[in-house]
Amino acid sequence: MGLSTLSNIGHYVDLLRSPQNKGSEVRIAFAPMIKAIKLAKIPEGSKVYIIAQHTVGFEYYVLRYEMVGAQFGKNAFSIGVQSGEGDAWTDPTMDAEKWSMTLRDYDFVVMYNTTESFNKEFSSLFESGVVEPNSVYKIEKLANSVLMLKVK
């Protein structure tokens, strides 16, 4: 009762009016990616790089939540060509060579979504040059590069 006197009644009305299952609606868009993550059986403690190209980060954090036992670096989740002038989230300095060197410290890449420019710029790092969204890739470390193999 003590807390209720400290809050505006409007907050309680808003709470009662809000849809209780909105989280489920939002998560539907992530279902294919979550399924791929579960099927990949990423071992606990693995270092995972998430790509959520041209997003503002919400998708990145949803996917991190799905891989609670994994480790994540402090790298951009969107890399390469920016989506436009206001794109503050994409790291335009990350090219294929630099990303290849960065990925040497990782075990997996979770590819939520891509763009045509991403595929063109980074496809050389993927097996057969094919980049697929909603996929998990195992990183194979080569002498001077990496190769990403889709986990099936």
Task: Please specify the SSE layout and strand pairing.
Elements: H1 9-17, H2 22-27, H3 31-40, E1 48-52, H4 58-66, E2 78-79, E3 90-91, H5 96-103, E4 108-113, H6 116-122, E5 135-141, E6 146-150
Structural summary, described in words:
It is a single chain. With 152 residues, the chain is an alpha/beta fold. It has one domain. Helix content is 32%, strand content 18%. It contains six helices and six strands, in the order αααβαββαβαββ. A four-stranded mixed β-sheet has the order 1-4-5-6. Strands 2-3 form a two-stranded parallel ribbon. A hairpin with a 4-residue loop joins strand 5 and strand 6. The N terminus is likely disordered.
Compact overview of the structure:
The protein is 32% helix and 18% strand. With 152 residues, it is of the alpha/beta class.
> By helix and strand content, what is the structural category?
alpha/beta
Number of strands: 6
The domain count comes to 1
Low confidence ranges: 1-5
Global mean pLDDT: 89
- Provide a count of the helices: 6
What is the succession of H and E elements? HHHEHEEHEHEE
Strand content: 15-25%
Spatial strand arrangement across the major sheet? 1-4-5-6
Radius of gyration: 19 Å
Helix percent reads 25-40%
